[in-house]
Amino acid sequence: MSTDYDIIVVGGGGAGMTAALFAQAAGASVMLLEADTKLGGATRLSGGVVYAAGTSVQQAMGIADSPQAMYDYIMTLNGWQTRPDIIRLFAERSAASVEWLVSLGAEYEWVVKSGVDTVPRGHCTVGAGDTIGRLLINEVGAKGIETALGTRVDRLLIEDGRVVGVHASGMDLRAKAVIITTGGFGNSPGMRARYFPSAAQHGDIVYSVHNDAPFILGDGIKLGEAIGAQITGHDTGLVLPSAGLVPNSVEAFLPPWCMLVNDEGRRFMPENSPYAVSGYLINEQSGAHAWAIFDEKTLVEGSADKRFSDPYHTGEVSQTWDEDLIRKHVESGKIRTADTLEKLADMVGINRLALAETVARYNEDAQDGVDSEWAKQAPKYFPIDAAPYFAVEVRASVIGQTSAGLDIDTKGRVRDRNGIAIPGLYAAGEILGCVQGNRYSGGGMGVGNALTFGRLAGEEAAASLRVNA
Ligand SMILES: Cc1cc2nc3c(=O)[nH]c(=O)nc-3n(C[C@H](O)[C@H](O)[C@H](O)COP(=O)(O)OP(=O)(O)OC[C@H]3O[C@@H](n4cnc5c(N)ncnc54)[C@H](O)[C@@H]3O)c2cc1C
Q1: Parallel, antiparallel, or unpaired: how do β-strands 30-33 and 146-148 relate?
Q2: Which residues pair with 124 in a beta bridge?
Q3: CB–CB of 292/258 below 8 Å?
Q4: pLDDT score recorded for residue 260
């Protein structure tokens, strides 16, 4: 293995492979280093939804959209607490990421409203993240990009304030530019406690979707911190609601047939809210939890009704709360049950008077087939009036993405604590702390970020070689 390259890319997931491919296409010699024994990272495990606006896929489906609309939506949802320059770049370049995937062979049959916007922007890749991973791995192979697996970078090399390479596997590898694409830190309890405390507060039950990508440990943050990089986006990321009925599983959507209340006995959102908002709202309730309440009739009918288990209406069932599972957890004591709502409320610590009031209104609405309080749209509304009654504790304890990390400028260059670009250092993907803001705008933001900012970093790092030649 040669030790001198134009560009070293650290991390071979979606962002890293994309950066490597575009850097090489721009004429750079590239070395791609991957800690794991295979390429793909979280990208390959993902649902393969890509958030983008103004694509040919949308046009073919008659969906009118534009980068400006995507920009406006993300900025508004985040109350402008995210970087306008970065979001504009993301919105303007997002379509090119989808077009590129299509050119590599990706197919799209569905574009869904994956956030709380009115426009469908979540491009569902046929075959999910595995397809994206496979297409990128094939392309990396086809283009002959040099790759070293099982090579975990533990230090950046610095000379005269410039990043000149990396240290990995006991070796110094030199390069004119380094791109950090090490992904998030979902698998590191220490990093979660430090950078994502609102998720870490749930303690032992926290589960990260990154579980099967063993090196999603926040190495990129440590590499950057050690040389004075700014770490931004504290306590941001995606948290998904879970009742923990199936250990270490993802329940992106709560069953809409239940009623969700807080300890005060009040509903606080439509129960079928998109995961772009539901986890945050649950975390904001007293005790950072909520209770799913339903009765015997709803349990039997609701959990068997497949219309409730296909949130995107794509024909894909994503349900974990079936009747057998619930009965099993009633037996284990995890799910509480009582023959009156008052007893149930006292058992789990819900304000019983408020709960009675909330249920009365909910039941009245159910008769009328509406949700007059929270406007839940559901194919059927179930009253809560047939004992026994059930209470399931729900916490936002599943990490879907971590979003604290490195800060970049609009050329993909990592910024130091003074906001100044560190010469020779670039970053892209889930390692970035400056993309998400305080709300996950919708399914597809993670892969969209990886592809769009991966390309930016690869192209800009390669362009910098020409300037510095
Ligand atoms: C189950 C699951 C479902 C998801 N579904 C979606 C979805 O549908 N849509 C969406 O937008 N997002 C989704 N996400 C999030 C999304 O997949 C990620 O945000 C995105 O793919 C991250 O891409 P990345 O290239 O930045 O990181 P990754 O793809 O995770 O790649 C990072 C790579 O860096 C390597 N690495 C780490 N440290 C080092 C080191 N020190 N040296 C060398 N290599 C290192 C890792 O091993 C890994 O291969 C999902 C995530 C998961 C896990």
Answers
A1: parallel
A2: 49, 110
A3: yes
A4: 97
CA of 447 to the centre of ligand 1 (A): 8
CB of 34 sitting under 6 A from ligand 1: yes
Decide if 112 contacts 120 (C-beta within 8 A).
yes
Query: Which residue do the tokens 């390429």 mark?
Result: 39
| Inter-residue contact 18 to 454 (CB < 8 Å) | yes
DSSP β-bridge partners for residue 178: 8, 425
**Cα–Cα distance measured from residue 132 to residue 391, given in angstroms and rounded to the nearest whole number:** 40
**450: Cβ below 6 Å to ligand 1?**
yes
CB 256 within 8 A of CB 301: no
Closest CA to 400 of 376, 430, 433: 430
Question: In terms of Cα–Cα distance, which of 132, 455, 440 is closest to 275?
Answer: 440
Q: What is the pLDDT of residues 301-347, one digit of tens each?
A: 988 887 766 655 555 655 578 899 999 999 999 999 999 999 999 99
CA distance 434 to 234: 10
Domains of the chain: 4-183+218-236+403-468 (3.50.50.60), 239-398 (3.90.700.10)
DSSP 420: P
Task: Compute and round to an integer the Cα radius of gyration of the chain.
Answer: 23
Cα–Cα dist 9/28, whole Å:
12
Ligand 1: residue of 167, 171, 182, 242 to mutate (most ligand atoms within 8 A of CB) is 182
CB 12 less than 6 A from any atom of ligand 1? yes
Nearest to 275, CA basis, from 109, 191, 401: 401
What is the ipTM metric for this complex?
0.99
- pLDDT of the residue at 313: 54
Conformational region of residue 223, where left means phi above 0, alpha means psi within -120 to 50, and beta covers everything else: alpha
What span, in angstroms and rounded, lies between the C-alpha atoms of 150 and 412? 26
Share the mean pLDDT of the chain: 94
Contact in structure between 387 and 327 (CB atoms under 8 Å)? no
Which of 430, 449, 451 is the pocket-test mutation for ligand 1 (most atoms within 8 Å of CB)?
430
